[in-house]
Amino acid sequence: xxxxxxxxxxxxxxxxxxxxxxxxxxxLPLRHERKFGKRSVCPYCGASIPAYLNIPILAWxxxxxxxxxxxxxxxxxxxxxxxxxxxxFFVLAKYPPSGIGLTVDTISFDTLMPxxxxxxxxxxxxxxxxxxxxxxxxxxxxxxxxxxxxxLGAWLVPGLAGELPRGVDxxxxxxxxxxxxxxxGWGVTWGVRVLSSSVFRKEAMxxxxxxxxxxxxxxxxxxxxxxxxxxxxxxxxxxxxxxxIVTKDSEIAFGxxxxxxxxxxxxxxxxxxxxxxxxxxxxQRENANSPLALGAVAAISLLLLIVLVRRGRxx
Length: 315
Ligand SMILES: [Zn+2]
Fold this sequence. Notes:
This protein is an all-alpha fold. The protein has helices at residues 4-27, 58-62, 77-94, 109-135, 140-156, 170-199, 207-247, 255-286, 290-308. It folds into 2 domains: 1-135, no CATH class; 138-315, no CATH class.
Protein backbone atom coordinates (compact mmCIF):
# COMPACT_ATOMS: atom_id res chain seq x y z
CA UNK A 1 0.00 0.00 0.00
CA UNK A 2 1.36 3.39 -1.01
CA UNK A 3 1.46 6.63 1.04
CA UNK A 4 -1.44 9.06 0.49
CA UNK A 5 1.22 11.45 -0.81
CA UNK A 6 2.13 9.04 -3.62
CA UNK A 7 -1.51 8.38 -4.44
CA UNK A 8 -1.96 12.11 -5.16
CA UNK A 9 1.32 12.26 -7.09
CA UNK A 10 0.22 9.22 -9.14
CA UNK A 11 -3.16 10.79 -10.00
CA UNK A 12 -1.60 14.12 -11.07
CA UNK A 13 1.10 12.30 -13.05
CA UNK A 14 -1.66 10.21 -14.66
CA UNK A 15 -3.58 13.34 -15.74
CA UNK A 16 -0.42 14.74 -17.37
CA UNK A 17 0.24 11.43 -19.15
CA UNK A 18 -3.44 11.46 -20.22
CA UNK A 19 -2.91 14.86 -21.84
CA UNK A 20 0.05 13.39 -23.75
CA UNK A 21 -2.10 10.38 -24.75
CA UNK A 22 -4.69 12.77 -26.22
CA UNK A 23 -2.01 14.13 -28.54
CA UNK A 24 -0.93 10.56 -29.46
CA UNK A 25 -4.52 9.43 -30.08
CA UNK A 26 -5.09 12.39 -32.38
CA UNK A 27 -1.76 12.37 -34.22
CA LEU A 28 -0.53 8.75 -34.45
CA PRO A 29 -3.18 7.68 -37.01
CA LEU A 30 -2.30 10.76 -39.12
CA ARG A 31 1.40 9.98 -39.39
CA HIS A 32 1.04 8.52 -42.87
CA GLU A 33 -0.40 11.85 -44.00
CA ARG A 34 2.71 13.69 -42.75
CA LYS A 35 0.69 15.74 -40.29
CA PHE A 36 2.67 14.41 -37.37
CA GLY A 37 4.11 17.63 -35.90
CA LYS A 38 5.85 18.20 -32.59
CA ARG A 39 4.10 21.34 -31.34
CA SER A 40 0.85 21.26 -29.41
CA VAL A 41 -1.75 22.65 -31.82
CA CYS A 42 -5.52 23.16 -31.80
CA PRO A 43 -7.07 20.24 -33.72
CA TYR A 44 -9.75 22.60 -35.07
CA CYS A 45 -7.92 25.70 -36.37
CA GLY A 46 -4.23 24.70 -36.14
CA ALA A 47 -3.18 27.55 -33.83
CA SER A 48 -0.48 26.58 -31.33
CA ILE A 49 -1.64 26.10 -27.74
CA PRO A 50 0.23 27.88 -24.92
CA ALA A 51 1.49 25.64 -22.13
CA TYR A 52 -0.86 27.03 -19.45
CA LEU A 53 -3.89 26.04 -21.56
CA ASN A 54 -2.58 22.48 -21.78
CA ILE A 55 -3.16 21.77 -18.09
CA PRO A 56 -5.12 18.50 -17.97
CA ILE A 57 -8.85 18.61 -17.10
CA LEU A 58 -8.56 22.02 -15.35
CA ALA A 59 -7.96 23.95 -18.61
CA TRP A 60 -11.03 22.30 -20.18
CA UNK A 61 -13.17 23.26 -17.18
CA UNK A 62 -11.67 26.80 -17.12
CA UNK A 63 -12.42 27.30 -20.84
CA UNK A 64 -15.85 25.69 -20.35
CA UNK A 65 -15.12 23.27 -23.16
CA UNK A 66 -14.32 25.92 -25.79
CA UNK A 67 -10.95 26.46 -27.54
CA UNK A 68 -9.33 29.79 -26.57
CA UNK A 69 -8.06 30.40 -30.12
CA UNK A 70 -11.12 29.85 -32.30
CA UNK A 71 -13.96 29.11 -29.86
CA UNK A 72 -14.51 25.61 -31.30
CA UNK A 73 -16.18 23.19 -28.92
CA UNK A 74 -13.47 20.94 -27.42
CA UNK A 75 -14.72 17.37 -27.40
CA UNK A 76 -15.46 15.99 -23.92
CA UNK A 77 -13.28 13.04 -24.80
CA UNK A 78 -10.11 15.06 -24.18
CA UNK A 79 -10.78 15.57 -20.44
CA UNK A 80 -12.27 12.05 -20.31
CA UNK A 81 -8.98 10.46 -21.48
CA UNK A 82 -7.11 12.56 -18.90
CA UNK A 83 -9.52 11.57 -16.13
CA UNK A 84 -9.38 7.86 -17.05
CA UNK A 85 -5.58 7.91 -17.03
CA UNK A 86 -5.51 9.79 -13.70
CA UNK A 87 -7.90 7.25 -12.13
CA UNK A 88 -5.97 4.27 -13.55
CA PHE A 89 -2.65 5.61 -12.20
CA PHE A 90 -4.29 6.22 -8.82
CA VAL A 91 -5.59 2.62 -8.80
CA LEU A 92 -2.14 1.35 -9.85
CA ALA A 93 -0.59 3.19 -6.89
CA LYS A 94 -3.27 2.07 -4.43
CA TYR A 95 -3.44 -1.58 -5.53
CA PRO A 96 -0.06 -2.21 -7.17
CA PRO A 97 -0.24 -5.47 -9.20
CA SER A 98 3.40 -6.12 -8.23
CA GLY A 99 2.41 -5.93 -4.55
CA ILE A 100 5.04 -3.22 -3.99
CA GLY A 101 3.50 0.02 -2.70
CA LEU A 102 5.45 3.27 -2.64
CA THR A 103 6.24 5.01 0.64
CA VAL A 104 8.64 7.84 1.46
CA ASP A 105 10.95 5.44 3.35
CA THR A 106 11.15 2.69 0.77
CA ILE A 107 11.38 4.57 -2.52
CA SER A 108 14.17 3.23 -4.72
CA PHE A 109 14.82 1.86 -8.20
CA ASP A 110 13.46 -1.55 -7.18
CA THR A 111 10.18 -0.19 -5.77
CA LEU A 112 9.64 2.45 -8.45
CA MET A 113 10.38 0.35 -11.56
CA PRO A 114 7.36 -2.02 -11.34
CA UNK A 115 5.01 0.99 -10.96
CA UNK A 116 6.56 2.83 -13.90
CA UNK A 117 6.40 -0.27 -16.12
CA UNK A 118 2.78 -0.97 -15.24
CA UNK A 119 2.06 2.75 -15.79
CA UNK A 120 3.51 2.45 -19.28
CA UNK A 121 1.46 -0.72 -19.90
CA UNK A 122 -1.82 0.93 -18.86
CA UNK A 123 -1.14 4.24 -20.69
CA UNK A 124 -0.27 2.37 -23.89
CA UNK A 125 -3.48 0.31 -23.65
CA UNK A 126 -5.60 3.47 -23.15
CA UNK A 127 -4.13 4.98 -26.35
CA UNK A 128 -4.75 1.69 -28.22
CA UNK A 129 -8.39 1.66 -27.07
CA UNK A 130 -9.31 5.11 -28.34
CA UNK A 131 -7.37 4.84 -31.62
CA UNK A 132 -9.01 1.48 -32.33
CA UNK A 133 -12.44 2.98 -31.58
CA UNK A 134 -11.82 5.82 -34.05
CA UNK A 135 -9.86 4.15 -36.84
CA UNK A 136 -10.06 0.34 -36.37
CA UNK A 137 -6.27 0.18 -36.29
CA UNK A 138 -3.59 -0.37 -33.64
CA UNK A 139 -0.53 1.70 -34.66
CA UNK A 140 2.86 -0.01 -34.77
CA UNK A 141 4.62 2.49 -32.46
CA UNK A 142 2.19 1.49 -29.68
CA UNK A 143 2.21 -2.29 -30.19
CA UNK A 144 5.96 -2.59 -30.84
CA UNK A 145 6.85 -0.46 -27.81
CA UNK A 146 4.53 -2.63 -25.69
CA UNK A 147 6.43 -5.79 -26.75
CA UNK A 148 9.89 -4.25 -26.28
CA UNK A 149 9.19 -2.59 -22.92
CA UNK A 150 7.38 -5.74 -21.69
CA UNK A 151 10.36 -8.01 -22.38
CA LEU A 152 13.01 -5.50 -21.21
CA GLY A 153 10.90 -4.77 -18.12
CA ALA A 154 10.69 -8.45 -17.18
CA TRP A 155 14.47 -8.65 -17.43
CA LEU A 156 14.93 -5.53 -15.25
CA VAL A 157 12.25 -6.50 -12.70
CA PRO A 158 12.35 -10.27 -12.11
CA GLY A 159 8.83 -11.66 -11.63
CA LEU A 160 7.03 -8.85 -13.48
CA ALA A 161 5.40 -11.23 -15.99
CA GLY A 162 4.61 -14.03 -13.52
CA GLU A 163 6.00 -16.42 -10.94
CA LEU A 164 9.70 -17.21 -11.42
CA PRO A 165 10.82 -20.78 -12.19
CA ARG A 166 12.98 -22.38 -9.49
CA GLY A 167 16.68 -22.99 -9.92
CA VAL A 168 17.18 -20.39 -12.65
CA ASP A 169 18.82 -16.96 -12.38
CA UNK A 170 15.90 -14.55 -11.57
CA UNK A 171 16.61 -12.19 -14.48
CA UNK A 172 16.96 -15.06 -16.98
CA UNK A 173 13.88 -16.85 -15.61
CA UNK A 174 11.82 -13.66 -15.76
CA UNK A 175 12.98 -13.02 -19.33
CA UNK A 176 11.96 -16.57 -20.28
CA UNK A 177 8.48 -16.14 -18.75
CA UNK A 178 7.97 -12.85 -20.59
CA UNK A 179 9.21 -14.31 -23.89
CA UNK A 180 6.90 -17.31 -23.46
CA UNK A 181 3.99 -14.93 -22.76
CA UNK A 182 4.87 -12.97 -25.86
CA UNK A 183 4.91 -16.18 -27.93
CA UNK A 184 1.59 -17.46 -26.56
CA GLY A 185 -0.18 -14.07 -26.94
CA TRP A 186 1.12 -13.68 -30.47
CA GLY A 187 0.58 -17.34 -31.45
CA VAL A 188 -3.01 -17.71 -30.24
CA THR A 189 -4.17 -14.48 -31.90
CA TRP A 190 -2.23 -15.26 -35.09
CA GLY A 191 -3.82 -18.73 -35.18
CA VAL A 192 -7.33 -17.29 -34.88
CA ARG A 193 -6.48 -14.68 -37.53
CA VAL A 194 -5.31 -17.34 -39.99
CA LEU A 195 -8.31 -19.54 -39.22
CA SER A 196 -10.86 -16.74 -39.63
CA SER A 197 -9.40 -15.53 -42.90
CA SER A 198 -9.02 -19.00 -44.43
CA VAL A 199 -12.29 -20.54 -43.24
CA PHE A 200 -14.54 -17.49 -43.11
CA ARG A 201 -12.71 -15.33 -45.70
CA LYS A 202 -12.85 -12.40 -43.30
CA GLU A 203 -10.12 -10.49 -41.51
CA ALA A 204 -11.58 -10.50 -38.01
CA MET A 205 -8.29 -10.24 -36.15
CA UNK A 206 -5.92 -7.72 -37.72
CA UNK A 207 -2.16 -8.07 -37.52
CA UNK A 208 -2.40 -5.17 -35.04
CA UNK A 209 -4.33 -7.45 -32.64
CA UNK A 210 -1.60 -10.10 -33.00
CA UNK A 211 1.08 -7.55 -32.06
CA UNK A 212 -1.02 -6.13 -29.23
CA UNK A 213 -1.48 -9.62 -27.75
CA UNK A 214 2.27 -10.26 -28.11
CA UNK A 215 2.89 -7.15 -26.00
CA UNK A 216 0.20 -8.11 -23.47
CA UNK A 217 1.79 -11.58 -23.14
CA UNK A 218 5.23 -10.02 -22.61
CA UNK A 219 3.78 -8.11 -19.63
CA UNK A 220 1.37 -10.72 -18.21
CA UNK A 221 2.95 -14.10 -19.09
CA UNK A 222 1.42 -17.02 -20.99
CA UNK A 223 -1.45 -17.60 -18.54
CA UNK A 224 -2.18 -13.86 -18.48
CA UNK A 225 -2.22 -13.80 -22.30
CA UNK A 226 -4.68 -16.71 -22.49
CA UNK A 227 -6.92 -15.18 -19.82
CA UNK A 228 -6.82 -11.80 -21.61
CA UNK A 229 -7.77 -13.39 -24.92
CA UNK A 230 -10.62 -15.39 -23.35
CA UNK A 231 -12.02 -12.36 -21.47
CA UNK A 232 -11.60 -10.16 -24.58
CA UNK A 233 -13.51 -12.63 -26.79
CA UNK A 234 -16.38 -13.13 -24.36
CA UNK A 235 -16.83 -9.41 -23.51
CA UNK A 236 -16.45 -8.43 -27.17
CA UNK A 237 -19.03 -10.98 -28.29
CA UNK A 238 -21.55 -9.95 -25.62
CA UNK A 239 -21.10 -6.25 -26.42
CA UNK A 240 -21.21 -6.92 -30.17
CA UNK A 241 -24.52 -8.78 -29.96
CA UNK A 242 -26.09 -6.15 -27.66
CA UNK A 243 -24.91 -3.29 -29.89
CA UNK A 244 -26.27 -5.06 -32.98
CA ILE A 245 -29.67 -5.38 -31.31
CA VAL A 246 -29.74 -1.84 -29.88
CA THR A 247 -28.06 0.29 -32.55
CA LYS A 248 -28.13 -2.03 -35.59
CA ASP A 249 -24.42 -1.24 -35.97
CA SER A 250 -23.08 -4.73 -36.45
CA GLU A 251 -19.36 -3.99 -36.55
CA ILE A 252 -17.18 -3.47 -33.49
CA ALA A 253 -13.50 -2.81 -32.80
CA PHE A 254 -11.79 -5.75 -31.06
CA GLY A 255 -8.86 -3.88 -29.46
CA UNK A 256 -10.83 -2.23 -26.62
CA UNK A 257 -12.06 -5.65 -25.45
CA UNK A 258 -8.55 -7.12 -25.45
CA UNK A 259 -7.56 -4.08 -23.37
CA UNK A 260 -10.46 -4.73 -20.99
CA UNK A 261 -9.32 -8.35 -20.62
CA UNK A 262 -5.71 -7.27 -20.07
CA UNK A 263 -6.66 -4.79 -17.33
CA UNK A 264 -8.86 -7.39 -15.60
CA UNK A 265 -5.96 -9.81 -15.73
CA UNK A 266 -3.46 -7.21 -14.45
CA UNK A 267 -5.49 -6.35 -11.34
CA UNK A 268 -7.42 -9.55 -10.61
CA UNK A 269 -5.03 -12.24 -11.75
CA UNK A 270 -4.82 -13.88 -8.30
CA UNK A 271 -8.59 -14.25 -7.64
CA UNK A 272 -9.17 -15.33 -11.26
CA UNK A 273 -6.41 -17.96 -11.11
CA UNK A 274 -7.80 -19.09 -7.74
CA UNK A 275 -11.23 -19.43 -9.33
CA UNK A 276 -9.90 -21.37 -12.32
CA UNK A 277 -7.63 -23.69 -10.34
CA UNK A 278 -9.57 -24.23 -7.08
CA UNK A 279 -13.23 -23.17 -7.27
CA UNK A 280 -13.79 -24.28 -10.85
CA UNK A 281 -12.30 -27.83 -10.60
CA UNK A 282 -14.33 -28.46 -7.44
CA UNK A 283 -17.50 -27.36 -9.16
CA GLN A 284 -16.44 -29.39 -12.19
CA ARG A 285 -16.25 -32.59 -10.17
CA GLU A 286 -19.94 -32.19 -9.35
CA ASN A 287 -20.90 -31.02 -12.84
CA ALA A 288 -19.29 -33.27 -15.41
CA ASN A 289 -20.36 -31.18 -18.41
CA SER A 290 -18.75 -27.92 -17.25
CA PRO A 291 -15.58 -28.13 -19.41
CA LEU A 292 -17.86 -28.56 -22.43
CA ALA A 293 -19.84 -25.50 -21.30
CA LEU A 294 -16.66 -23.39 -20.96
CA GLY A 295 -15.41 -24.60 -24.34
CA ALA A 296 -18.79 -23.81 -25.91
CA VAL A 297 -18.74 -20.26 -24.46
CA ALA A 298 -15.25 -19.72 -25.91
CA ALA A 299 -16.15 -21.17 -29.33
CA ILE A 300 -19.44 -19.27 -29.65
CA SER A 301 -17.76 -16.00 -28.57
CA LEU A 302 -15.01 -16.48 -31.14
CA LEU A 303 -17.52 -17.22 -33.91
CA LEU A 304 -19.59 -14.15 -33.05
CA LEU A 305 -16.47 -11.99 -33.01
CA ILE A 306 -15.34 -13.20 -36.42
CA VAL A 307 -18.74 -12.14 -37.74
CA LEU A 308 -18.90 -8.83 -35.88
CA VAL A 309 -15.38 -7.36 -35.89
CA ARG A 310 -14.26 -5.07 -38.66
CA ARG A 311 -10.62 -4.16 -39.22
CA GLY A 312 -9.00 -1.23 -41.00
CA ARG A 313 -6.48 -1.85 -43.76
CA UNK A 314 -3.40 -0.63 -41.89
CA UNK A 315 -2.37 -2.30 -38.68
ZN1 LIG B 1 -8.52 26.63 -32.40
